[in-house]
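new request in #modeling-help
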Amino acid sequence: MKKILLLGETKKNRVKMVSYELIARARRLPGKGEVGRKKGGSVGINGIDRSRGITVGKADDDTLEVVVILPGEAENPEELCYRGADRVLHIDQKEFNYFSPERLQKALSAIIKKEDPDVLIAAATTTGRTVMPYLAVKEKTGLTADCTELKLDTESGTLYQTRPAVGGNIMATIKTAFGKPQMATVRQNSMKPLDRDESRKVNIENLAFSGDILKSRIKYLGITEFKERETLKDAKVIISGGRGLKKKDNFFLIEEFAELIHAHAGASREAVDRGWISYPHQVGLSGKTVNPELYVAVGISGAIQHLAGMQTSKKIVSINIDPGAQIFSVSDLGIVCDLFDILPVVIKKLRGR
Amino acid sequence: MREKNSQETLRRHAAQFSYVAPNIAVLIKHVPETENLKIDEKTGTVVRKGQNAIVNPMDLYAIEAALTVKDKNHKTDITVITMGPPNAERSLREALSMGCDNAVLISGREFAGSDTFATSLVLSRVIKGLKNYDLILCGERATDGDTGQVGPAVASFLDYPVITYVSNFKLNTNNSGEFIASVDRIVEEGIEHYEAELPVVLTISKAIGVPRIPTLSGKKRAKKAVIKNIGFNPELFGEDEVGLNGSPTRVIKLYRPKVKRNPLIIIPKNEEEIEAAADKLIDFLKNEAGIV
């Protein structure tokens, strides 16, 4: 039996969705290259499973123990068990409601010492991407960032960690040559949570840390939350513009198109780098990973960093003047056309409705 | 008593006007320009020959952040540090031309193949040997490796606190004249506000502001500047601590990603066909995505 530790997250005393995604990810670890691949489900370039969630049966349980660490006070830790966790280590303390990398690292180090896990996985959120490298150094072990696919050889215990490499045009599979646990962060919104099953056994241990572990040299003062329109992450429809817009003055075409169909405006890294729209709108590996019902890419060639942030969208439409643009390969509908020819027509038609 | 008071006033005065200046280290990476990146199909590594290399674009924001501190307090000392091939010197000179004061190049065959763990170990050892830095600034991530791990890992090796995804920060002084950093950080839900003791490692996001362009006088100064070179020094590093030997992660396989979706492609050739394509798009919005 291999022990998998997952770093769950809370928000306003509730378990965050990303924690359930991690459990689904962990439950599908065993296997040889078949992770996330199910009959009938199509697999994107990142090995993302677009099929429905599966129900956890007892059969899943004999090779793995899946343990979720949940830092911060939460009202519903049992939900993690319903979603497939065998055990929850709930750090039920107010000091963990807010993020301090060093405090969380000290707590995680204490847990690792006690649990001796084979694998530790966190989501590639702002929390995971910060505390995991901090922790990996203290544990003297390897960490692979932003994995799109993970598989575990349950006999040898080796974790195969796959991520986009150099420039993102190629995928690299990585293993941890020395150090324990094997650590990885995985992209969020890339795996559906398992179906909820209330008959599963609830096993929650409440942990309380004291003394040095609670000390932090940074002090959390508060948060200014984004307004609804600013958060791309939960958007149903996103219209994104890229370098094809040519200059800042043209970006209103994207904003107007988005406005007309009550969509959010997004952008590629190039557009944000050129200052056409602000950073919170950036979609892609160095921006946000989005998962809308519809994603429309206008004047975006489709660098793999961008694709990695949007290709789990349910439907994708792209407009690009270059027929060879990579974006077409992940699209459901592609229009090869100068965007300045077609966008005004589309906007006019939408306005006329 | 009066003397003590006036000393106190003086000290407060000094703190307020920052006669005490912070030392800042900025860690940068020399990366290939991603626009025309070529991959060696056999080894899966980036073909560096004949490729332009630049300062990692995300690191320019860290440099800008450091220079903003210097704008307010001219005695601020900024050291820019990189580990990379000998020609990474060019990136250091660019940072100098923007206004950084000193540059350090860590280069040597022994360091080749270092993963983020080994790289962070080397950087942190070098930093420790240079100066007592109040602030260590990094870009959010590099455009080639794209891991964003070096900043937090360097902080961990140095046992300093770290704040990532910083969108804004200010250095204030408390009553005893010590610096306190007030730091904003962009997360999924909004902007978090923190206060940090120094020294602290900050990874700087794009939200900090547009990086400045080097000035002509800056370029002249940078051209003449002496760059401190640090090679593999057995007194500083063990052989098993750097390069592949010191790297806990190993690349074992490289492959081209497969793409799957079967798009309907329309190529309109004239105004009429553009009209039709626009209708098709709107139909798609309506039928497939249930909007409009």
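bot summary: The longest strand of chain A covers residues 64-71.
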